[in-house]
Write a structure and sequence with these properties.
338 residues; alpha/beta; 5-stranded parallel beta sheet; binds 2-acetamido-2-deoxy-beta-D-glucopyranose; Sulfotransferase
C-alpha cells in the first residue's frame, strides 16, 4: 500500500514540473510570437508614414508618365516663390556639359528661347561654388529647386531647368560624386562637343586675346549679336604654337572620351556643335530628350569666325605642316562654314 501510495503520489509530484516547463515554454513561444507581431506592426506603421511624407512633398500626380520616366520627373517646391498655376507641371533637370568655345553659349541661348526652359548659364565659373563637393551640391540643389535667379530664370512654368558646366570647372575633378548626384536626382546630361579641335583652338586664342585687347570699343565680348561686331573680332588672326598643337589636340580628345565614359551611366545625350549647326532635326531631338513641347528655337548670336580656315590663322603654313599626315589632318580640310 505504502509502495502503491508512493507510486500513486509520485506522478502528481512529477507532473507539475512537466506542466511548469510546458507553461514556461508556451509563455516563451507566446512572447516571441507577440514580439514578432509587434515588429511586423511597427513595420506596417512606418511604411505608410514614409509614403505619407512622400505624398506630402509631391502632391502632384504624374499623369501619363511612363514608369521608366518617373525618376526624371520632378515637382520642385521653391522657397523663394510659388509655382502658382504651374505647381503641378512636371520639371526635368538637365546640365549642359561642355568645353569653352564649343558652341555651348549659342546652344544655351537657343534653349532659353523656349518659353519653358531656364538654363542658368555657367554658374560654376565662380570658384567658391566649386571649391568642394558640398559646395557644388548645395549650388545644384538650389538651381534644381528653382531658387536660383538669373536673367534666364522663367520659374513658375519652367518644364526644364539646368545650367552650363565646363569640364574644367570641377566637373571632371569631382565626376564620381556628380554622376552619383545625377543618378540619384534624375538629372539628364547634355554632353556638347565640337568636332573640329582646330577651329575650337582658334576661337579660344582669339577670345583670350580679346580679353585684353577689347576690340569692340574697349569692351571684351565672347559672343556677339551683329555681323559688324563679328567682323571686327574676326580681324584678329592668332598664331598657333605648332609644337604644342598635337599634344593639345590629344588632350582635348582624351577629355572628351573621359567625359563620355564618366556620364555613360546617367541619362544622357551626346551632341556636336557642327551637327546642331547644320542639322535642324538635332534641336528637335534635344527637345524630345528634355520632353519639352516642340518649339522653333532661335538665337540672336552671330558666328565670329566664318569661312576659310587658312585665313583665320597667322602662321597657317606651320599649322598645316604640323597636322598634315596626322590623325588630325581632317581638321585642316573641313572648310564648310563651321
Ligand atoms: C566648401 O567650400 C565652401 C565655399 O568655399 C566653404 O565655405 C566650406 O567651408 C567648404 N567646406 C568644406 C567641407 O571644405
Ligand atoms: C510652358 O509655359 C507656358 C506659359 O508660361 C505654360 O502655360 C505651359 O503650361 C508650360 N508648359 C509646360 C509643359 O510646362
Ligand atoms: C563703337 O562706338 C561708336 C561710337 O559710339 C559706335 O558708332 C559703334 O557702333 C560702336 N561699335 C561697336 C562695335 O560697338
Ligand atoms: C611653343 O611652346 C613651347 C612649350 O611651351 C615653347 O617652348 C616654344 O617656345 C613655343 N614656340 C613658340 C613659337 O612660341
Ligand atoms: C539629323 O539629325 C537627326 C537626329 O539626330 C538624324 O536622325 C539625321 O540622320 C541627321 N541628318 C543628317 C543629314 O545628318
Ligand atoms: C602633306 O603631306 C603629303 C604627304 O603625306 C605631302 O605630299 C604634301 O606635300 C604635304 N603638304 C604640305 C603643304 O606640306
Amino acid at each position: 500500500m505504502e509502495q502503491q501510495d508512493a507510486l500513486v503520489i509520485k506522478p502528481p509530484k512529477r507532473s507539475p514540473l512537466v506542466l511548469r516547463t510546458v507553461v514556461l515554454l508556451f509563455a516563451m513561444v507566446c512572447g516571441v510570437y507577440i514580439c514578432s507581431i509587434c515588429l511586423k506592426q511597427t513595420n506596417i506603421h512606418t511604411t505608410p508614414k514614409l509614403l505619407n511624407i512622400k505624398a506630402f512633398d509631391q502632391p502632384c500626380q504624374a499623369a501619363n508618365i511612363e514608369q521608366s520616366e518617373i525618376p526624371f520627373v520632378h515637382y520642385p517646391n521653391p522657397v523663394t516663390f510659388s509655382r502658382e498655376e504651374c505647381a503641378c507641371n512636371p520639371v526635368r533637370y538637365f546640365a549642359i556639359l561642355s568645353m569653352q568655345r564649343s558652341g555651348s553659349g549659342w546652344f544655351e541661348t537657343l534653349l532659353n528661347s523656349h518659353i519653358n526652359v531656364s538654363s542658368n548659364g555657367e554658374i560654376f565659373s565662380v570658384k567658391e561654388r566649386r571649391s568642394n563637393i558640398s559646395s557644388i551640391i548645395r549650388t545644384m540643389d538650389k538651381v534644381y529647386n528653382l531658387d536660383w535667379f538669373t536673367s534666364a530664370s522663367k520659374n513658375e512654368c519652367s518644364a526644364a531647368v539646368g545650367f552650363k558646366w565646363m569640364m574644367n570647372q570641377g566637373l571632371m575633378a569631382h565626376h564620381n560624386d556628380i554622376v552619383e548626384y545625377f543618378k540619384e536626382k534624375g538629372v539628364s546630361a547634355i554632353l556638347l562637343f565640337r568636332r573640329n579641335f582646330l577651329r575650337r583652338m582658334i576661337s579660344v586664342l582669339a577670345n583670350s586675346y580679346d580679353r585684353d585687347a577689347k576690340l569692340l570699343n574697349g569692351t571684351h565680348k565672347s559672343h556677339v549679336h551683329s555681323p559688324a561686331e563679328a567682323k571686327i573680332l574676326a580681324k584678329y588672326k592668332p598664331t598657333i604654337n605648332a609644337t604644342l598643337l598635337i599634344p593639345e589636340m590629344m588632350k582635348i580628345e582624351q577629355t572628351t572620351a573621359k567625359a563620355i565614359e564618366y556620364f555613360q551611366g546617367t541619362r544622357h545625350i551626346v551632341l556636336y556643335y557642327e551637327d546642331l549647326f547644320t542639322n535642324q532635326t538635332k534641336l528637335k531631338e534635344v527637345q524630345e530628350f528634355l520632353r519639352l513641347p516642340y518649339r522653333e528655337l532661335t538665337s540672336r548670336q552671330v558666328k565670329i569666325h566664318r569661312g576659310t580656315l587658312s585665313e583665320q590663322v597667322e602662321n597657317w603654313d606651320d599649322v598645316y605642316k604640323a597636322l598634315n599626315g596626322t590623325l588630325y589632318e581632317k581638321f585642316l580640310h573641313s572648310d564648310c562654314d563651321m
